[in-house]
Design a protein that fits this description.
The chain contains 2 helices and 2 strands. With about 70 residues, it is mostly helical. The chain has one domain.
Length: about 70
Amino acid sequence: MQAVVPPKRLIADRAYDGQSLRDWLQSHRVIATIPSTATRTVPYKHSRIAYRRRNQIECLFGHLKNWRRVVTR
């Protein structure tokens, strides 16, 4: 990840809720929008609005993949 220019914000799924990733993002001044997993004793705060937008985009790509199957038949 050192070769990539760090963005201002990283919006990721719960699977990326690792402390090492959060520490790296904080050292590079990147805002982490990652909801905490259920196993964390103290959950991190995140922007629900930004996370909701990520989910809408992910659902859009899922719909496009489904329609691609219909169109190519």
